[in-house]
Write a structure and sequence with these properties.
With 319 residues, this protein is α/β, with parallel strands linked by helices. The chain has a domain of 132 residues. A 13-stranded mixed β-sheet has the order 3-2-1-4-5-6-7-8-9-13-12-11-10. Helix 4 links the parallel strand 4 and strand 5. Helix 4 runs parallel beside helix 5. The N and C termini lie far apart (84 Å). It comes from Caenorhabditis remanei (Caenorhabditis vulgaris). This is Sdz-33 F-box domain-containing protein.
Amino acid sequence: MQPRSPAQNTDAGHVNLFSQLNATCLSMEKQLKIEVFAVHENKKSLGVHLIRFAEQDDGKVAEVHISVTANSILIVRLGVDNQEPDICKLIPCHRVAFSLGAMDTLDVKKIFSESSTEWNDWHCTNVNGNLNMEAVRVIMDNANSDRTLMFSPAVNFPVDFTHDKAFQLKKLDCFNAQWVRIEQLLNIRGAKEITLRRTNLTVSEMNRFLRHCLESREQVCETARIPVAQGPIDLHALMNGLVFVADNNMEARMRGIHILLGCSETDVRSKYANVKIFNECITSEFFTGNAESPQPHVVEILELMKREKRIRREALRVN
């Protein structure tokens, strides 16, 4: 596809931007391709939202996606070697996201070595190519509680994979998660969302995880989507040690979806879990207090049930 002229898609401000960009690119060792799509309005500021790295027919490229408005995106394609920082200096970056295709480990190291300077506030990395585990470890080395990591089905983790910072994230979405152990889940703190697509976890381990989330002093995570290795799921085994009420939503049940609202039998903290079970997948949303509950009246019922169990335990001790 032939690049469109900036004048066809932009106003004077954008033309000036591309004059600068062309001047910068032409001074580099490699000739760069620039493609511009659908930039319509004059805005005072531009921000880089996504940088996509991948091997393509014409070699290694990076796509820089610049959001101007909700319906207006500008795309710049350039060679990957040592040139992204120049683009970042030219166009102010804020909250950059990376999308990584099939790449050499050396290229991954180059990208993330720059994150301490030009891209120090990147917030999301989506891995779409089958990187080796050394490259994956480089990415996870940069994890923190404000960042998101996503690993597509192309990434084949060995079952013995481990990394100290694998769950020290705002969000983790991992397709091949057979490497995840219950001990790792129990060490999660302050995550917003954990999504695993395939695991070797059991129902009893997921019961342990649910109880841990509900009884922990700290917030473990807000939402967890985690399947067990094999179904069907025994609801009573999953909710063992918890007080719970099943939602009587017949439409959901007809589709094979079970919805439960539960809390700890013994813990005094007002923590609750909205648990949805479909096939082998367990989706849990954790909240505190009646004000955050999707069903406040059910929370009141749970508290009455918990109080009844406590009275019965005390009566047994007296007898």
